[in-house]
Inverse folding.
């Protein structure tokens, strides 16, 4: 079951806004009202393992592989009787939107993706990076250990705050802003989903066989044909690809924007006007 923020009007063009880790639906707290005022039907769901989401069975694998999160979003669209939506996101949310745009373009009217093309694979996760780049992924290797799992479980709020600070070094967020989002990490499945996500990427945890065919299609790096705007903050402290490395992945109408002013990884919350404008422009 998914917890979702919806903003009227219900008959407007649908926009689904997808958050990342370690963030929550409040990344769009200032984006959603602007889009709603512009006439859009705005849906902002918690991803699995965050906020009010719950699994129906205790026996279900707490699976965080990339394809499953995308299929969750499609299932939500089906439940809301939304055939096609503009998809916009950052971090896990950008990857999720990218996957739907690439594999299910009939469900994606247009795309706004922070940091561009983020579709990956377990095969790609086996390729070593230069030391400085590997250092940026320190938490991924920490999560590969049982100590890392226990540490994240014990200190999940402190851990998330550290990531916020590292990923957005110029964002002067206050304690109330952080705690509002941090409540979503108290979800009983949050730690399991996060750990599985990062272990799966490195090939240290298995996915579910029923998703193997979809993952193989994603491993081929499919092009995205829908109209797309990619965004990048000028002060993103999180690992992210250079725009020149993915521009050719977008074969339809495409633009890339650098959002200036010390904007970090949580771009929609740090620069809501620019993010909302990108959603409206990609729909043009």
């Amino acid at each position: 079951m998914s917890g979702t923020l919806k903003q009227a009007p219900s008959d407007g063009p649908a926009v689904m806004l997808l958050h990342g880790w370690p963030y929550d639906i409040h990344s769009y707290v200032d984006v959603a009202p602007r889009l709603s005022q512009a006439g859009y039907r705005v849906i902002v769901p918690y991803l699995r393992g965050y906020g009010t989401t719950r699994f129906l069975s205790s026996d279900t694998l707490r699976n965080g592989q990339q394809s499953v999160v995308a299929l969750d979003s499609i299932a939500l669209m089906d439940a809301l009787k939304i055939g096609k939506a503009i998809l916009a996101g950052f971090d896990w949310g950008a990857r999720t939107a990218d996957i739907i745009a690439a594999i299910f373009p009939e469900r994606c009217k247009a795309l706004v993706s922070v940091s561009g093309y983020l579709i990956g694979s377990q095969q790609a996760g086996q390729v070593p990076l230069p030391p400085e780049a590997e250092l940026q992924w320190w938490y991924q290797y920490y999560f590969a250990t049982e100590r890392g799992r226990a540490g994240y479980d014990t200190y999940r709020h402190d851990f998330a705050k550290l990531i916020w600070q590292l990923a957005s070094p110029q964002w002067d967020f206050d304690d109330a802003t952080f705690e509002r989002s941090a409540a979503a990490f108290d979800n009983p499945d949050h730690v399991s989903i996060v750990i599985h996500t990062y272990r799966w990427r490195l090939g240290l945890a298995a996915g579910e066989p029923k998703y193997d065919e979809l993952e193989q299609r994603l491993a081929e790096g499919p092009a995205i044909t829908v109209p797309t705007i990619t965004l990048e903050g000028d002060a993103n402290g999180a690992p992210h690809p250079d725009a020149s490395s993915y521009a050719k992945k977008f074969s339809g109408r495409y633009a890339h924007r650098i959002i200036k002013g010390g904007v970090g990884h949580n771009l929609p919350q740090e620069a809501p006007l620019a993010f909302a404008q990108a959603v409206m422009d990609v729909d043009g």
About this structure: The radius of gyration is 17 Å. The chain has one domain: 4-282. Strands lie at 4-7, 14-18, 41-45, 85-89, 108-114, 228-233, 254-259. The first strand starts at residue 4 and ends at 7.
